[in-house]
Amino acid sequence: MLIVPENEIAGLATRQAAFDAVEAVFAAMATGDAYNFPVVREAIGHEDALYGFKGGFDRGGAALGLKAGGYWPHNMDRRGLINHQSTVFLFDPDTGKPRAVVGGNLLTALRTAAASAVSIRHLARADAKVMGMIGAGHQATFQLRAALEQREFEKVIGWNRDPSHLSRLAAVAAEAGLSFEAVALEDMAEADVIISITSSFDAILVADQVGPGTHIACMGTDTRGKQEVDPALLSRATVFTDEVAQSVSIGEAQHAVAQGRITEADIHMLGAVINGTNPGRASVDGITLFDGTGVGLQDLAVADAVVERAIERGVAIEVDF
Ligand code: NAD
Fold first, then answer.
1. 2-108+297-318 — its CATH code?
2. Which residue minimizes the CA distance to atom 31 of ligand 1?
3. Is the model's pTM score more than 0.85?
4. Domain 125-293 adopts which CATH fold?
5. pLDDT tens by residue, 80-93
6. CA of 303 to the centre of ligand 1 (A)
């Protein structure tokens, strides 16, 4: 069995490899070649932690396994550790033997950023110029970096509950040679692409704060009860997702479905757009919305790519297990 420790991941994983792995596995999910197992997520009653498993099997990519981990809210304050902690376990689908244990913390950030980037590649208008960000936490900088590679953006605008954190986004925009402007939510209408990546439990963005032709990637809502946008926006938009079952239960669409504004049948798989079986954006004026709930197959896909790279570079630790 191979071990690829967390401290090796930064030297092995790239945004491009994460993008390619996530795009391929979304496509495989839409054909049925890959499927996710039901998510387990538990408040364990210790350290206020949320712990769980996301797993799946990709026949084509021969990736079988799970990501185990979650959120320990006191890690940073009490121990100087990041609050999100996860590990990916890969198994040999032919024998069931463990194949690799891979650090999952940086990979989670990269695969989540890759998901919104894939949605922008396939759903945003080709002439998108203004990139809008809602949220400026740990994950937001990863999302922005990957998004800026998808179109010839000319400017970044951003909103965060605590505006002092927006300097992180300004720094990423500057790396790409772009200007950054902190804006009010009403001014988000200027954006051609919007990513929301917050831990909010209430709608932040309302429908009339989104202009025609915009693509929105809602990435923060990954748990029952969380919410980032007005459900009315989902009725106005063409809605896409990584996984329909998660979208209606733990994703942004949970609220619009519960209110009867849309049904499961109105939610399309992004993988079908990648495969060309769904036309995706139908008009320049339409709003497209990607509900990125985060699936186990994304984790397996990026971990698998990292294991291959670790073997090539001779940094995978082999143990007799
Ligand atoms: P973080 O704690 O570093 O940042 C949280 C962000 O949410 C900050 O910008 C904060 O200002 C904002 N926020 C919190 N409560 C808010 C509220 N009530 N109203 C408006 N803004 C609010 O977290 P992070 O690591 O950046 O992750 C952000 C979210 O993304 C988390 O909720 C996490 O669970 C989710 N996430 C989703 C996926 C996925 O695959 N979809 C993957 C990783 C993280």
1. 3.30.1780.10
2. 199
3. yes
4. Rossmann fold (3.40.50)
5. 998 899 999 999 99
6. 23
